[in-house]
Amino acid sequence: MELLNKKNLLLAGPCSVESREQLYDTIKQLTNSKVDFIRAGVWKPRTRPGSFEGLGEKALNWIKEVKEEFGVKFAIEVANSKHVEEALKTGIDLLWIGARTTVNPFAVQNIADALKGLKIPVMVKNPINPDLGLWLGAIERLQKVGLVEIMAIHRGFSSYKPREYRNDPIWNIAIDFKVKCPNIPLICDPSHIAGKRKYLFEIAQEALDLDFDGLMIEVHNNPAVALSDSEQQLTPKAYDALINKLEFRKKGVNNENILEQVKIIRKEIDFLDRDIVNFIEKRMELIMKSAKLRLENNIPILQIDRWEDIEKSRPLWLKNKELDPEMIRLIFKTIKTEAIKMQLDLKKNHKL
Ligand code: PEP
Ligand code: MN
After folding, report:
1. What is the structure's pLDDT at 350?
2. Ligand 1 neighbour 41 (Cβ under 6 A)
3. Which pTM was predicted?
4. Given the CA of residue 153, which atom of ligand 1 is nearest to it?
5. Model confidence over 127-148: pLDDT tens digits?
6. CB-CB contact of 264 with 320 (8 Å)
7. Residue 254's pLDDT band (boundaries 50, 70, 90)?
8. What is the DSSP string of 185-221?
9. How far apart are CA 183 and CA 10, in angstroms?
């Protein structure tokens, strides 16, 4: 249970176990850095066949050796009941379900069944597609077999659009997750979001600023020759530098005075939000009044020049230069889209 209350949990280690030397050397170099669990891939789910798919049992034997030698705790990915069985035999301390497995309820159930009645902590990565339901569903399957120490990992979402990062973080989904599961610690995996070393710091810091409960970062003794995810892995030295540069939040820092000030500001925000809702309501009433007039006189609902004018003019009204005009444009686009829908309904319902 202690894991559930831990703030700033750190997992670091290679994407995959590639050789005894690679594992030894990486861990040896990490021993002076802040790491709670060594992570390592033993069975690798690869998008295309023919890539390095992990060393399985051989890797597990080396893990057993290094655990004894360095006294470190280990986390590995499992994708089926056989993996669970072998991981438990090896004395692995923490398991995780990968993004390609979370998407498949059959596979998750198969893992859950293998874990029934056990005490081992398990982390669930988000599914590769932005679907909160699948993520929650996987967690519920583990809860249903009696697992208590469950954590979640945010590793971003794949997208067909060209993008800077390998996987889009879509932080909103992580926030929705926190709202739905306030008691499940949420870890960020900036390595699989970034895809490239140079983005790791900004993503990891963003996650910490959003109050994530820890980080999982890929570290390899020689990333240039790594057999998987070469471009995103850090050397142990670079990992150490990254961790020391990041600004971590402390759990339970309760500065009463500050919290009181935040409460007052939030009250003010609540009042403003109420005004915003009232204004939107008022705006919609006016739209309906105008719609009725137009419909009764055979004037079309959509007038494209008006639509364009609203999208263009509203962002220009911003006085605060720090605010993004695109945000204002999108807000009005949403309001306009809803207004068109309401007007079409008005026509249908009143046969105007
Ligand atoms: C991994 O952690 O090495 C991995 C395969 O990640 P994901 O499941 O997030 O793609
Ligand atoms: Mn990887």
Report:
1. 74
2. yes
3. 0.83
4. 9
5. 999 999 999 999 999 999 999 9
6. no
7. low
8. -EEE-HHHHHSSGGGHHHHHHHHHHTT-SEEEEEB-S
9. 18
Residue-wise DSSP of 225-278: G-SS-TTTPBPHHHHHHHHHHS-PPPTT---HHHHHHHHHHHHHHHHHHHHHHH
Amino acid at 315: P
Any ligand 1 atom below 6 A from CB of 98? yes
Mutational test site, ligand 1, from 155, 158, 234, max ligand atoms within 8 Å of CB: 155
**Residue 199 clears pLDDT 90, i.e. is over it:** yes
pLDDT of residue 352: 56
Strand-pair partners of 234: 219
> 336 CB contacts (<8 Å, ≥6 apart)?
307, 310, 311
Nearest ligand by distance to the CA of 232? 2
Q: How far apart are CA 352 and CA 349, in angstroms?
A: 8
Q: Which residue has the higher pLDDT, 161 or 231?
A: 231
Tokens linked to 310: 């609203």
pLDDT average, residue stretch 234-250: 95
Say how many Å lie between the CA of residue 179 and the centre of ligand 2: 28
For atom 3 of ligand 1, the residue with the nearest CA is 15
Ligand nearest to the CA of residue 189, numbered in listed order: 1
Question: Do residues 37 and 94 touch, judged by C-beta distance below 8 A?
Answer: yes
**Pocket perturbation via mutation, ligand 1, pick of 37, 78, 189 by most ligand atoms within 8 A of CB:** 189
pLDDT tens sequence across 15-54? 999 999 999 999 999 999 999 999 999 999 888 898 999 9
Ligand 1 atom nearest 156 alpha carbon = 9
- Residue 172, pLDDT > 60, answer yes
The beta-strand segments (E) located in the chain are 9-13, 37-40, 74-77, 94-97, 122-125, 150-154, 186-188, 214-218
Tokens of 21: 């030397």
What average pLDDT score do residues 211-224 get? 97
For residues 189 and 153, the answer to whether their CB atoms sit within 8 Å is: yes
C-beta of 154 in contact with ligand 1 (< 6 A): no
Which two structure tokens, joined as six digits, stand for 288?
A: 């309906």
